[in-house]
Specification:
The structure holds 2 protein chains of 2 kinds. By secondary structure, chain A is an all-alpha fold. Chain A is built from 26 helices and 2 strands. Chain A folds into 3 domains: 115 residues, no CATH class; 257 residues, no CATH class; 105 residues. Classes of the chains: A mainly alpha, B alpha+beta.
């Protein structure tokens, strides 16, 4: 009985998910979803609800009949199941209900405030998820059944980073890699030496400045733990340092995106700045997604910088060991830092990148999973209403100001109801394709001319042509699905990150570490801001 | 002073394996053990993340490419 009581929250959550999935399936919620603009994700809502509802019930039954063990299945599925389901429900509720509601409310408040509050405060699903996590953990606390699941957040965030590897091209990785090594190398070593110098100015012990310099320079808590034995840090110094790093990182996570938007940074610049200036891997991902949760360009740049920073850890340990006059410890040698601390998830990232580059997810001729398909296909046709609009406009002579090639492309679109080559030439694929692409280019020219106001077209006609052009721009289903998985891994991981931001971890900051940490952190953030604005241009990814 | 009074509680978040109590004076061996333990748990975590990602990728390929 007590066993059933213990598992009751997970059973209830699982049942609720299944019921929700079935309700969505019936279409009863469609009007609400249309109001919230989430109807396009209706199928995904059904799939996720049924999968996670089913997993919750099956996992609970296994937990009830089986003795708890210490296998991988126990550690990564059965024990954290309650937390995983709870965070998943939160992620779904935030993504499909809270975020759209916040957008609608902030739009309705715009006349009163003069600005859209969700844009100024970056209130997208990432920020809302983190805030929800912070509120829950610091008010009601994390429920007992969910505690092991919340600890999975960082590991799932790493899965997101690994999956992100599938979205880079060789050129991007090479260009960003070179930028990141120079910038990160300069700022990591610069911060380490700045903190060591500040320690000398403020006459602080070497152990404290050593541990703080690694934390502020490389990757936060992980670096602090790795360097502590090298510089013989006292426990209180570690606590102060970790508190300082976490507090500084949390402030950066919320402030960076707003500053980035105010300064008019482009996604590449912001990604580079966040990856350089923020200390913690999860906080870098959070800031990048808070800046732009729709396009993953910012996240891609930020993660390359973050990975480079993580790889700098052994270099810093070596620098600090030399500075402290200690070659190696009894158990922790430099070799063990390089080998044991090597972030294996980066190998995963490279494996996914390799698979993507080998054309496993989409043919090499495609660009990042995107391609143009002008072959005959019912799904590529414009709608009946759009066809009638175009046919009417053509008959009324609305396209008389177009040049002959553009007019021919529009006429052909009306004849074939889609952008395609000539029907008679359909067996010569090369010719068919090139004629179709040529027509697409002419129609894009019509849209550009309309935008530049050199020709005048009604909005319905522009919309119909735009739709026809959009229809032949396809995306690889594999790449789209992998990206969806990645986004959900990040959403899940970041809600869990919010749940780990406790008052206790922040308020332990204090002493000289907070003074020196704030000076070093602000200096690094400010300097990297200007260097990134000066050096990193959007062309890096083009 | 007892040993218990000389302990310092450190809240490291999940990265550093959560809350832990450590002796106040520097104890290199204890710090080394802690660092190695953190490294080891990170390695397990990374490996599991890698394996699960590969499984996910395989399933995605199966249902969006190979079986379609």
């Amino acid at each position: 009985m007590s066993c059933t009581k213990e598992h009751m929250p997970v059973i209830v959550m699982g049942a609720l998910l299944l019921i929700y999935g079935l309700i969505v399936q019936t279409g009863v919620l469609l009007p609400t979803m249309k109001y919230l603009h989430t109807h396009k994700a209706m199928d995904l809502q059904v799939t996720l609800s049924l999968i996670f509802g089913g997993l919750a019930l099956v996992g609970t039954i296994i937990n009830m009949v089986r003795e708890p063990g210490d296998t991988t299945l126990d550690r990564f599925f059965l024990q954290p199941l309650g937390g995983i389901i709870l965070i998943m429900i939160m992620a779904m509720a935030i993504r499909w209900y809270l975020e759209p509601l916040v957008k609608i409310m902030s739009k309705s408040l715009q006349p009163l405030l003069g600005f859209k509050i969700y844009k100024v405060m970056n209130l997208n699903y990432v920020v809302l998820g983190i805030l929800a996590g912070v509120v829950i953990t610091n008010t009601w606390g994390i429920p007992k059944f969910a505690a092991p699941g919340v600890k999975c957040a960082r590991f799932i965030l790493k899965m997101g980073v690994i999956m992100l590897g599938a979205r880079y091209s060789f050129a991007e990785l090479a260009k960003l890699g070179v930028y990141s090594v120079w910038l990160i190398g300069f700022f990591v070593l610069g911060t380490v030496f700045l903190v060591l110098w500040l320690g000398k100015i403020f006459k602080q012990p070497k152990s404290m400045t050593g541990v703080l310099s690694a934390g502020m320079g490389v990757c936060g808590v992980s670096a602090t733990v790795a360097v502590a034995p090298v510089v013989k840090a006292k426990s209180a110094e570690m606590a102060y340092t970790i508190g300082t790093i976490l507090s500084f990182g949390i402030i950066c996570m919320f402030v960076f995106p707003t500053i980035g938007h105010m300064a008019g940074m482009n996604p590449v610049q912001f990604g580079a700045w966040a990856g350089t200036g923020i200390l913690n891997s999860a906080q870098v991902a959070a800031a990048a997604l808070a800046f732009d949760a729709v396009d993953i360009k910012t996240l891609k740049v930020a993660e390359i910088f973050n990975i480079t920073r993580v790889l700098f850890l052994p270099v810093i340990v070596l620098v600090l060991a030399t500075w402290f006059g200690k070659q190696s410890g009894q158990k922790l040698s430099f070799k063990s830092v390089v080998i044991d601390k090597f972030p294996i998830f980066i190998l995963g990232f490279l494996i996914l990148f390799g698979m993507s580059s080998a054309g496993l997810f989409s043919p090499p001729s495609h660009y990042k999973g995107k391609y143009i398909d002008v072959s005959y296909n019912d799904r590529t046709q414009v709608t009946t209403e759009e066809w009638e609009t175009l046919d009417g406009a053509l008959a009324a002579g609305d396209f008389s100001s177009l040049d002959p090639a553009q007019l021919a492309a529009v006429t052909n679109l009306v004849e074939q109801r889609q952008i395609a080559g000539n029907y008679d030439e359909r067996n010569d694929k090369k010719l068919f394709d090139s004629v179709g692409r040529g027509r697409m280019a002419q129609l894009e020219g019509v849209l550009a001319a309309a935008k530049a106001k050199t020709i005048s077209l009604s909005s319905d006609v522009k919309s119909a042509i735009k739709h026809a052009v959009k229809q032949v721009h396809k995306k690889s289903k594999t790449v789209v699905t992998l990206t969806d998985f990645m986004i959900w891994f990040f959403a899940f991981g970041l809600i869990g990150l919010g749940m780990q931001i406790t008052k206790k971890s922040i308020t332990q900051a204090g002493g000289w570490p907070i003074v020196m940490g704030v000076i070093a952190g602000i200096t690094k953030a400010t300097l990297s801001f200007f260097v990134v604005l000066w050096l990193v241009k959007d062309v890096v990814l083009n | 002073m007892t040993d218990e009074e000389n302990k310092v509680t450190i809240e490291t978040g999940d990265t550093g394996k959560g809350t832990s109590e450590m002796a106040e004076p520097a104890n290199t061996e204890e710090l080394e053990e802690r660092a190695l333990s953190v490294f080891s748990s990170e390695r397990n975590e990374d490996l599991t993340a890698l394996v699960l990602c590969l499984i996910t990728t395989f399933m995605v390929l199966l249902f969006t490419k190979w079986l379609v």
